[in-house]
Amino acid sequence: MKMALLPVLLVIFLSAHAPLQSEALNVRGPRLKSKTFLSPPFLLNPGSVSNKFYYDIDLPRGHLALKSFDAEVVDENGVPVPLHETYLHHWIVEPYYAAKNGHGLPEERILKRNSGVCEDVLWQYYGLGSETRHTATWVPDPYGIEIGNPPEGYEEKWFLNVHAIDTRGVTDKLGCVECRCDLYNVTVDEYGRSIDESYTGGLYCCYDQTQCRMKEGFNGGPRELFLRYTVTWLAWSDAVVPVKIYIFDVTDSALLEGKTEPACKVEYQVEECSSENRAKNDCVDVMVTKQVLPRGGDIVFGKGHQHPGGIGASLHAQDGRLLCASMPTYGTGTEAGNEAGYIVGMSSCYLAPGTATVRDGEALTVVSNYSSERRHDGVMGLFYILVAEHQAEQQQHLAPNNRQALCFSFPVSWCLPAWLSGYM
Predict the structure, then answer these.
(1) DSSP symbol at 173
(2) Which segment of the chain is annotated as a signal peptide (predicted)?
């Protein structure tokens, strides 16, 4: 569902109602450990794309509580590479189980997905894009993401996916990072399936080893790059409170359409605003959806993920309360971490226990805002949260005693009748 709002009012609303946001806490202690790793190398020529999957990557082993996972692209000398040379579309990490006596075959892997809510996509535990250098991933105390407790006969391993686009010498840097199909001269996807003519840009057009359009006469050599990632963790103990990972996708319209199965498309297109809206200085694209949180609890951390053109994302409770607003930071220079025109950070929300409590099966509203001053292809509006689940007796206490109308206050005030909200 899309709506248009005045950009100034939108930003004021999000700023005024946002929960306390914080950078990652720099906690040190004898139990807290940290280590930095390098991915296998990936090779990029000017204008080329690398979208590689690496299995059994280096990561701490054992029954642990993950506290943070930070990453960036570096060259063979360990020097950070700026986004205007190599655009980091995304990196994701996810655990899987491998049989101890297996043969290491792909069909023997059992993926260990996050807790939802998209069933067929967005399974990762951690994942970021261009914002990776200035987006907090710290899990606040006393919480942790539990890993390393596989079923008997299995061992836990991890895979890493790095999707990077070399934009040296290309004719249109923004068009290349938005994966415009015409710039890649692509009409079929990586599996050889025809791409619909209405699909003008996105992941289907910038898969591994594709090539974006180059300026005539540009000379540049190949580069060997790496994803450098730093993991911070604790040994698991009864003192750590486990949290569940949920990733919401604003493109999932299943609940709004009365369907039972999620329909997460991951990406969407922002059309250029009309001349009428441009005259009113109202070039903001607002995408809104609702998704159900299967298990309730306290939301203790949240952040959004957007692409160039994004101006903020937010998550709202069923009663309309703003749970978290995540705002982008755009770079202003040329150095790595401050590249002009690129999102170099997304703000994160750290929420005190009890301040963002949600029930089992609560319908949450996801909002993603983009500037529509120009068209944007292949954009995303994801929201990542960590939830500390309540015990059964707490859920019963939180459950409503009678059916009430379901109302939302954002982006406009609207309500469903009580008889219908009972089915949500």
Answers:
(1) H
(2) 1-24
